[in-house]
Amino acid sequence: MSNDHKTDVATTGIVEGEIVEFPLPPHHHRLTDTDPRAARRAERQVSTMFVLSGVCIIAFVAAYVAIPETSYINLGPVGTLQTSNLVLGLTFGLGTLLIGIAAIHWAKKLMSDEEIVDYRHPVGSPQEDRDAAKAAFDAGVAESGFVERKMVRRTLLGALALFPLPLIVMLKDMGPLPGDSLRHTIWRKGSRIVIDVTGQPLRPEDMQVGSLVSASPEDLNEIQEAAGDQNARAKASIILVRMKPSDIVSEQGDGWSWNGILAFSKICTHVGCPIALYQQRTHHLLCPCHQSTFDLADSGKVVFGPAARAMPQLPITVDSEGYLVAQSDFQQPVGPSFWERA
Amino acid sequence: MTSTSVRRNKATGLVVLIAGLVMTGVGYAAVTSTAEASVAMSSQTQIDQGKQLFQQGCATCHGLAAQGSSEGPSLIGVGAAAVNFQVATGRMPMAQPANQAPRKAPVYTDDQIAALAAYVASLGPGPAVPSDEDLNTSDANLAEGGVLFRTNCAQCHNFAGRGGALSNGKYAPSLMNATPRQMYEAMLTGPQNMPIFNDKTLPPAEKRAILKYINELQTAPSPGGLALGSLGPVTEGIFIWTVGLGALLAVAVWIGAKVR
After folding, report:
1. What is the SS3 assignment for B20-77?
2. Measuring CA to CA, how many Å separate A39 from each of A30, A45, A99, A295?
3. Which helix (H) or strand (E) holds A304?
4. Which among A127, A248, A324, B41 is least buried, having the fewest CB atoms inside 10 angstroms?
5. Across the interface, which of B152, B166, B225 has its CB nearest the CB of A79?
6. Side-chain half-sphere of A315: how many Cα atoms within 13 Å?
7. Is residue A169 over pLDDT 70?
8. For residues B23 and B86, is the Cβ–Cβ distance under 8 A?
9. What is the spatial distance between Cα B21 and Cα B18, in angstroms, rounded to a whole number?
């Protein structure tokens, strides 16, 4: 600490540069410092824990060899669990824990118990060091001619300004721009609707009133194999529900349903969770992520939760062979809102 | 006094009705061959018994002819499967009006449930109680059942079949105590807010694959134990934030404590 370092000491009454000894609380010696028997006891405790740790580790090795994977043990409320999992976890965990506890117990009871005073010093550098640094910097600026040689200075600044440009240009490699792909799915006029997983095409009479089917377009697998595009599969997911035609209050378009069968996107319009929590009595579709609720009997409108847009409806009809098909692609972008969306 | 007499009159009407039905059954039996007669007799008796039970225990909400009322839906055409599911799981009769009827101990005996089912089945065609053959999963594909379960069931019943919340106090129940017959019936009939998975959209073989997968969920041991309800990050997070961090804090306090 330098003597010319100015500090406002008026309020504290401390004289500049003087080291102040604050009164320390009296030091109480530990029982292990005063009583040799207590010290020996602590020593024994620490050693016992180290020995137990070793026993646990040997038990771990023994259990690893001896306990078959097929052995299970019932621990009542905890449930039935694999014996080797339980024993290996307990022995290794205890072996580690005991080393830690013994080390801390050793440090607290037996290692030296000296109290020392650790003085606080000002954080800033001494004034003379700061002055020297400033002088060196100024000398450097003067010697380099950075101020006088304007052309060098300006071209240097120009070069540095352009330097990050490649990094920005390379951002393009993060992928092609989405174009209008966010507004379209692979559904198109005449796409046959098939049941998800099994790929079975659907006739209207296959669905009872109150039923729910997760479905996809028939050509989904070909398109996926050709383009390797998982987004296409995700965006094309739909659910079909059938309700009494008299229960339908409104639809997103005239003639978009078929005798009470309605098709909706399966992707929540909030942040895009797949949803099929359809409650057939209320015709509500609930998203488990943020509880957005859509009324499928009333244009898929949002009746609760953070979703801002109705669930897009897929217009469907029946083809000449009697199978359910799409009338067209979705008329609204499916999935969550995006920047360019009006 | 008046109400008692009215009740008495109703009871009289009921007895007369049952007597009439029994006599019709007996009369019908009398004019058919003996082998057929015994079948017709037992089923007609069962239907009559079911009707009686229905009018005592169910008609308040579902109407005297099961036509439905403001308190309960019509049961015409729901089939024996729906009755067996609702009554054998104790969901019906409901103890009190609620958004959802909870599972509880069944009120009726197996014979009475069969009689109720026979009566409701006689009102209109509907899905029958699945036979033991329908529930035989020995040829079912477990892996296919897993895919179908995750596609069609897991959204409400949880990936591990532990159930989950729906809106307005409704919920998808846990499948851990459900029997294969009850689950098959639930898929066929769509009880309460569950959608129907009829045989055309989910063929019986696929239903059996799902049953086999759920049986696996019910019986497979959990190597780690302490599944915390298999509810995912909510219970696991609460556990680690309370028990795990609590243990770390206790150790930190012990390390920092002054030694005497």
Report:
1. HHHHHHHHHHHCCCHHHHHHHHHHHHHHHHHHHHHHHHCHHHHCCCCCCCCCCCCCCC
2. 10, 10, 19, 75
3. strand A301-304
4. A127
5. B225
6. 14
7. yes
8. no
9. 5
Report chain A residues whose CB lies below 8 A from the CB of B170: 279
Longest dimension (CA), chain A: 102
B86-132: per-residue pLDDT in tens? 999 999 998 888 888 999 999 999 999 999 999 999 998 889 999 99
Any idea how long chain A is? 342
| Res B248 pLDDT > 70 | yes
Q: What is the DSSP string of A217-276?
A: ETTHHHHHHHH--HHHHHHH-EEEEE--GGG--B-SSTT-SBTTEEEEESB-TTT--B--
CATH code: domain of residue A292: 2.102.10.10
Residues of A in contact with B154 (CB under 8 A): none
A297-302 contacts at long range (C-beta below 8 A, 24 or more positions apart): A297/A243, A297/A247, A297/A248, A297/A249, A298/A249, A298/A250, A299/A249, A299/A250, A299/A251, A299/A252, A300/A252, A300/A264, A302/A269
Q: Is B235 on the interface with A (CB under 8 A)?
A: no
Q: Determine the structural domain holding residue A227 and report its residue range.
A: 181-326
Q: Per the structure, how many domains does chain A have?
A: 2
Average pLDDT over residues B48-71: 90
What is the three-class DSSP state of A295? strand
- Is the minimum CB–CB distance between B259 and chain A shorter than 8 Å? yes
Tell me: do A207 and A321 sit in the same domain: yes
Same domain, A73 and A203: no
Residue B198 is assigned to a structural domain of this protein: yes
Rounded to 5°, angle at Cα A146 from A142 and A148 = 85
Instruction: Kindly provide the b/e burial profile for residues A18-47, where b requires at least 16 CB atoms within 10 angstroms of the residue's own CB.
Output: eeeeeeeeeeeebebeeeeeebeebeeebe
Tell me how many helices (H) and strands (E) chain A has: 8, 13
Token pair for A56: 């646990």
Q: Classify residue A43 by its DSSP letter.
A: H
pLDDT in tens, A12-22: 666 666 666 67
- Residue among B155, B196, B222 whose CB faces A276 most closely: B155
